[in-house]
Amino acid sequence: MKKLLILLLVLPLMAAPARALDYTAPTPPPEAQALMPQTQERFGEGLLEVLKAVLPEIQPAVAEAAGICLALMAAALITSLAGTIPGCPKQAVGLAGALAVGTLLLRPSGALIRLGSQTVTEMSEYGKLLLPVMTAALAAQGGGTASAALYTGTAVFDAVLGALISKVTVPMLYLFLCLGVANSAVGEDMLKKLRDFLKWLMTWSLKLVLYIFTGYMGITKVVSGTADAAAVKAAKLTISGMVPVVGGLLSDASETILVSAGVMRSAAGVYGLLAILAICLGPFLRIGVQYLMLKLTAAACAVFGTKETAGLIQDFSAGMGMLLAMTGTMCLLLLISTVCFLKGVE
C-alpha cells in the first residue's frame, strides 16, 4: 500500500512534459510591444496583425518621401535649365546641383541611417535574450547537442554581424554618401573610385557573413526540409526583389521559415518570431519607401536633369539599399535561427 501511494505521487511528475510552452520569451522594446498582436498562437494570423499595425505608421514616411522627391525633381529641372544659359559655367551648375540634392537628402538619409542602426542593435539585443530561452527549450526536449550548436553559431554570427554593421558599415555608409556629393560637385575620378570601392566593400562584407552563416547552418544540418514548391518560389522571388544587395542570398534561406511553419507549436518561439518582426518591419518599410522613391526620382531626373544630379540621387538610393540589406540581414538571421530551434521543439 505504501509503495502504491508513492507511485501515485511520482507518476504525475514523470508525466509532466518538458515543452517550450513552459518557457517565456522576452518582451520586445516598447515601440515593438505596441505592435504585438493579440493572437499569438498562430504565426500566420499574428504576422497579419503586425502588418496591419505597422502599415498606418509608415503613411507619414510616404508623404515625407514624396515631398522630398518632388523637391529633388524641381532642383534637377532648375539646374538643368541653368546649364542651358549661355556663359554659365558647367562646374558651377554641377556644384549647385550637388549642394541642392545634398541639402535635401543628407538630413532625412542621416535620420534613416540612425533608425536602421538602432533597429539592428535592438534586434541583436533581443536575440541575445531570446536565444537562451529557445536553447533551454530544445535542450529540455533532449536536443542538447543541436541546441548547443545552434546557440553557439547564432550567438557568434549575431555578435559579428551587429559589430560589423554598427562599427564598420554604418560609418562607411556615411562616407559613401559624402563621397557621392563631393564627386557630383567636382567630378573627380579619384572620388568616384573611392565611392565605388566603399560600395563594393560594404556589399561583400554583408554577403561574406551570410555565406558563412548559411554554410554553418548547412554543415550542422539544421536547415533542411521540404515545402510547397509554389509557396517557396513566391517567397524567394519576393525577398530577392525587396532586399537589395543580399536579396538573392536571403531568398535561398527563406525556405527554412516556410518549411517550419507547420511545427511552430512553441508559444515562446512564435512570440519571439513575431517580436523580431515587430522590431524590424516598421523601420524596414520606412527605409524601403525612401529607397523606392529615390530610385524612381533618379530615373525621372535622368530624363530632364543633369547627369551629375541624377547620379547623385542614385547614390543616395544605393545608400538606402545598403541600409535595407543591413536590417534585412539581421532580421533574417534571427528568424532563421529561431525557426531552426522550433524544428526541434515539438
> How many whole angstroms does the radius of gyration measure?
24 Å
Total helical segments: 11
The count of DSSP E runs of length 2 or more, i.e. the number of strands, is 0
Strand proportion: under 5%
Separation, N- and C-terminal Cα atoms = 38 Å
Order of helices and strands: HHHHHHHHHHH
| Biggest sheet overview | none
Q: What are the low-pLDDT stretches, counting only 5+ consecutive residues below 50?
A: 1-21, 221-241, 254-265
The portion of residues assigned to helices is over 70%
The averaged pLDDT comes out at 77
Shape: elongated
Number of structural domains = 1
Helix and strand content put the structural class at mainly alpha
From the structure provided, what is the oligomeric state, counting identical versus distinct chains? Answer: single chain
Brief overview:
It is built from eleven helices and no strands.
What does this entry look like structurally?
The chain has 346 residues and is an all-alpha fold. It has one domain. The protein is 82% helix and 0% strand. The protein contains eleven helices and no strands. It has helices at 2-15, 30-33, 43-54, 59-83, 90-140, 144-186, 189-219, 229-242, 247-259, 267-304, 307-343. The longest helix has 51 residues, at 90-140. It is elongated. Residues 1-21, 221-241 and 254-265 have low confidence and may be disordered.
What attributes does this structure have?
346 residues; elongated; disordered N terminus; mainly alpha
